[in-house]
Each structure stands twice: as C-alpha cells, then as structure tokens.
Amino acid sequence: MRPARALIDLQALRHNYQLAREVTGAKALAVIKADAYGHGAVRVAQALEAEADGFAVACIEEALELRAAGIRAPVLLLEGFFEADELPLIIEHDFWCVVHSLWQLEAIEQARLSKPLTIWLKLDSGMHRVGLHPKDYHEAYQRLLASGKVAKIVLMSHFARADELDCVRSDEQVAVFQAARQGLSAESSLRNSPSVLGWPNVSSDWVRPGIMLYGATPFGEDQAVAARLQPVMTLESKVICVRELPAGEPVGYGAKFITPKPMRIGVVAMGYADGYPRHAPTGTPVLVAGQRSQLLGRVSMDMLCIDLTDVPQARLGSTVELWGKNILASDIAVAAETIPYQLFCNLRRVPRLYSGA
Ligand SMILES: *Cc1c(COP(=O)(O)O)cnc(C)c1O
C-alpha cells in the first residue's frame, strides 16, 4: 500500500475550537466548508457536535452531506441559496441562511414557506465581494421582518484584511457595520479566524472560525494567540528509494537541482497529485526520520526528492512529515507562495486516518 496519508488529530481540533470560544467569549460556528478545509467535513462535524454551537458551509450540497450523516446541529449556508428552489430544502432541514443580495430577499418575499427561516443578513462593510450596501441594510431588515417568513435575523459582515495586524481597514469595516446596524436589535457576527486571534476588541455575538480550527495561523508573522493553536493534519509518507549521487548530477524533472557535492538523496511517495504544492522550491523544509531536512528539485506528480546527506539515520522506509506538528503548513505555504487554506483544500488521493475521536 502506498504510504502517503493524512493523519487527522480530532483532539487538537477540539482544542482549537475551544480556544476560539475562550478568547472571544462568543458563540462559535465551526466553518467546515470545502470538506472542512480538506479534513473531512463529516468526521470533523461529528468530533465537534457535542460542543459546537453550529457549523457553517458554502452551499446546500455541503449542508445536506452533514444531515445525511446524522448531524443535527445548526448549519449556516454562508452564501445562502444560489437558486430559490433550494428554499424548501432549507426549511425541511432547518438550515440557517445568509442573505447577501437583494435578489435573495425578493425570492424569500415571493416564496411560500411552511416554516419561518433563520436569516443571517450580510452587510458589505468594505470587502466589496457579497453583502448588502449599507444604504439598503435597514430596509432589507425591515422587509424580512415584514415578510412574516423569518423567525430570527443575525447581522453579519466579513473582514477583508484581518490577517494584516497593523492595517486600519478592519477598524473601518467595524465602524461601517456599527453605523449600518444602528437601531437594529439583533445578534451580530463579524469575526473569522484572523479576527478571533488578532482583534480582541471587535464585539461579535457569534464568531466564525475556519482555518484556526485546523491549527494553522492565518498570519504571516508570529502572533501570541495563534501560537496556542495545535496543528490538526499531519501529511506524511515514506522514503521509497535512497541513492548516492556524486557532485554535478541533476535531480528530477528539468534538472532544477544539481548536486553541488556528493549527496544522499531520498525519494518520497508524495507529489502534486496528492496536493503537495508543485511550486515548493528546493530548500522547502521536511522532517525525515525525526530530523529537519529539505526538498530538492521539482515536485513531480507522485514523488518528490529530499536531502538525506546529513540525516544518516534515514533510510528506506523512513517516515517523512511534509507538514504537521513539526513542519508547519503555514511555513510550507510561504515557501510555495500560497496560503495554508489552499494547501489543505488541495489535499486529494491520500487516505485520511483519524485519531482522538
Ligand atoms: C470561510 C469563511 C469564514 C472562515 O474564515 P477563516 O479565515 O478560515 O477563519 C468565515 N466567514 C465567512 C463568511 C467565510 O466565507
């Protein structure tokens, strides 16, 4: 059996969820869209269900997968419905529903619904992706109430730059939100992971942690609360071939690495078809036989090469950690010029093995 696999530590996941609640004192929707950022949405939801205030996903397809697996907790659809014909299913399964656009509001007004909805009314406070314009916000709220089709409304918005700790934009967005919600007495929800970790003064009845649940920092710099996160996923494999090369020999596709001296090279069963980033360059850290080493040459589809020259204990069958508790996914993301979110979401082909359930 191919030795590539992703170990998922559900105990660490619960620790990270509790951290989000502890540092905010708020109710927390665990964001498990995109198959829980590659960690497996059903298993993650099962591991959190006893304590979680609810879950958030991107679409009804993801929400239905949770219900089919027996998850009874509240599930928020972060983009609401894409077509009005989803409304009966939203009612049937008690999903909570974002309204981010006037067309969704109109669809609700026109729908015949057997039960009232729980709506999270989204304001565009400055990100300019989705969300109602501040000038339309009050009216949308009043129209939802007047429709008679809504049992509860939560006021929400989303930060564009909360991962930039010295950027004033998040404060500006909070100010826009506070102004737009003046006079509306309802719960609020503003905070994603970087805001939970790095912006202690933002008040929000509900928080929406995603990446932090999985133990990766959203920041490009060290941050005290993020340092308390525990990595959940360990992507590992084994050395499947060892070779000694003299100086001057190329390694891998395109001869992107040439041995500057005699070297010992290990080939690892892991490639970009597993989600390991093809753009990780020579020098990207790996852990082999318990010791830090580095990637050499181009990552190929199913294999990559690492340096064993100074790791004498490494041999055929040695375990290699590509990211996890020792090699942080955020460090691999920096090396490959991406973000840990994308590394996790790109995971495929490797079996996931769960512990700590
Ligand atoms: C994905 C998402 C989140 C979670 O973001 P993280 O940065 O992963 O914490 C929160 N809110 C909304 C609306 C989202 O789409």
UniProtKB/TrEMBL annotation:
Organism: Pseudomonas trivialis
Family: Belongs to the alanine racemase family.
Catalytic activity: L-alanine = D-alanine
GO biological process, one term: D-alanine biosynthetic process
Active site residues per record: 33, 253
SMART domains given in the database record: Ala_racemase_C
One GO term describing the cellular component: cytosol
Keywords: Isomerase, Pyridoxal phosphate
Residues annotated as domain Alanine racemase C-terminal: 232-355
Protein name from the UniProt record: Alanine racemase
Annotated substrate binding sites: 129, 301
First-level EC class: isomerase
UniProt entry tagged with the keyword Magnesium: no
EC number, as in UniProt: 5.1.1.1
Cofactor(s) needed for function: pyridoxal 5'-phosphate
Known function: Catalyzes the interconversion of L-alanine and D-alanine. May also act on other amino acids.
Listed Pfam families: Ala_racemase_C (PF00842), Ala_racemase_N (PF01168)
Listed pathway(s): Amino-acid biosynthesis; D-alanine biosynthesis; D-alanine from L-alanine: step 1/1
Modified residues (N6-(pyridoxal phosphate)lysine): 33
Record has Isomerase as a keyword: yes
GO molecular function, one term: pyridoxal phosphate binding
CDD domains xref list: PLPDE_III_AR_proteobact (cd06827)
Alphabetical list of Gene3D superfamilies matching this protein: Alanine racemase (3.20.20.10), Lyase, Ornithine Decarboxylase, Chain A, domain 1 (2.40.37.10)
